[in-house]
Amino acid sequence: xxxxxxxxxxxxxxxxxxxxxxxxxxxxxxxxxxxxxxxxxxxxxxxxxxxxxxxxxxxxxxxxxxxxxxxxxxxxxxxxxxxxxxxxxxxxxxxxxxxxxxxxxxxxxxxxxxxxxxxxxxxxxxxxxxxxxxxxxxxxxxxxxxxxxxxxxxxxxxxxxxxxxxxxxxxxxxxxxxxxxxxxxxxxxxxxxxxxxxxxxxxxxxxxxxxxxxxxxxxxxxxxxxxxxxxxxxxxxxxxxxxxxxxxxxxxxxxxxxxxxxxxxxxxxxxxxxxxxxxxxxxxxxxxxxxxxxxxxxxxxxxxxxxxxxxxxxxxxxxxxxxxxxxxxxxxxxxxxxxxxxxxxxxxxxxxxxxxxxxxxxxxxxxxxxxxxxxxxxxxxxxxxxxxxxxxxxxxxxxxxxxxxxxxxxxxxxxxxxxxxxxxxxxxxxxxxxxxxxxxxxxxxxxxxxxxxxxxxxxxxxxxxxxxxxxxxxxxxxxxxxxxxxxxxxxxxxxxxxxxxxxxxxxxxxxxxxxxxxxxxxxxxxxxxxxxxxxxxxxxxxxxxxxxxxxxxxxxxxxxxxxxxxxxxxxxxxxxxxxxxxxxxxxxxxxxxxxxxxxxxxxxxxxxxxxxxxxxxxxxxxxxxxxxxxxxxxxxxxxxxxxxxxxxxxxxxxxxxxxxxxxxxxxxxxxxxxxxxxxxxxxxxxxxxxxxxxxxxxxx
Length: 700
Hints:
The chain is α+β, with helices and mostly antiparallel strands. It is built from 17 helices and 25 strands. About 25% of the residues lie in helices and about 25% in strands. The protein has a seven-stranded mixed β-sheet with strand order 3-5-1-12-9-10-11. Strands 7-15-14-13-8-25 form a six-stranded mixed β-sheet. Strands 16-17-22-23-24 form a five-stranded mixed β-sheet, sandwiched between helices. Helix 14 links the parallel strand 23 and strand 24 (about 640-645). About 55% of the residues are buried.
């Protein structure tokens, strides 16, 4: 075998592309076993309380209805680690939309009709659903998400801020955001000879299998979970969701295959969301903008079911040099659905506030926003003192500014005009941590000269099959066409879920190791490959267990130009450019897609997306794609995504960092900063919808 040049990093076409556009690729709801039944969940109509009666007898007489599962007759389950999965296990209703029944019928139409007709009685209590900065239930958690400390302090922030020549003290707020993947959460399940088979729309089939095994008291070998094609997740499918538990319960109860597909209007309450935040940022600097004190304090909410703390203050611990720092979180448990992972959790929310405050500091100090960030570059991670494995933020800022045409830029706001339109430009930095988990993989050499890679990775639209094939071909030294990749089944070698921008790094490391081990074994055979071929299976438990002495992060800079209509208050993005330093880019085509897709989500975060909680009923008012406005084609200009060729020997054998999430991190702040530059008014609450903007521009 000889090295094949250019396999890793080339813009290889996605292997499943043709299958997706021709309908060959099948998703969780498209696997229908003979005799399959259809289940429709019934959400609670109260914000808090308990069920006192379910009149199942009235709907069991309706056409096609087989069963109505409630807390009184549903299979008993072992308590899960995530209490959101304990569906139909008690009469308690922790929030509106919590499932109180499941109607099983012979068709989706009959199931929905019966679910709509089902009468449920409650003992109702008044819910507490409103997050405020002074909520009496606020507390400081020991940890925020991802193991981050709830509170960190260095130096004397109060003293340094009080004595600073330039001070910024601003509060930024965001309402809840929802993932809304194109494919709703769905699961199809059936039992056969004591074995449970499940097709689930999930970001990790192994995690789903392990969770079901624990809840149903089964050996893991008695369950197979397939997640072969997943129509987006953005974090909402990163952990098991109730649809898979409901499907498994219903098929166990009825003895027949059962399919559960969540209606989009129900998803807002049961599959997670980005938590709303109230973030106060204080920065004190010298007259030249050099930071002396930085505080980032976050108020957010969780549910009464499970603590989930958006780690929004964490990016401030690594971004800029400051000898005096305070970064912390306070959270309160409300009668609301549990927040969960959404693309770049913590970083997307926190960097919006931090990078907006940095723009305010630039204005207050009279320093160009790009230059301000360059002046506050740390030599090492401020929070831990660890050296960075690589940090090319300065290059991203400089090269991004050049490509965008940042200079000459008049810093004075509200002066560029085209008729009724005011124009402005803005910049923001971005970061996302490098994460990796242990993974297993096998590599098989066949007698015909082809190779087969098996690893339970999940392709959520990112092109995992293709990139893993490229990693394998590069490690084997063979053409990409000779490598087949099997993913998406819990029967394959165990692998972590697709999330935290860690999928390719984790799976790819094990694939690389398996292939290099296979090459060594093949060399030892002296071209005497057995007829059945040769297979090696490895894991990366030892390698990934080692704690790195480095602070490992991807970095980026985003530049935006916007127009603000002084007649309607509408904000339009004219240009959006991102420059990223994310290690070695393994596939130029799929990487560009990931960057631009995330930047598009950033446009939605800044301008269109938001979920309001009804203070009376306690549910999200924007619960479908007619009211929750994701960016459409007309909202998205030509987005430019570029990257720096970054070499980092402290990551993994491929030298790669995650790229799926960093693209969203700085986009909202860059757009918000551009809006300020356009109109001369600082708006600190997202999204910047016309009703928010118009009062500030109508007289301009």
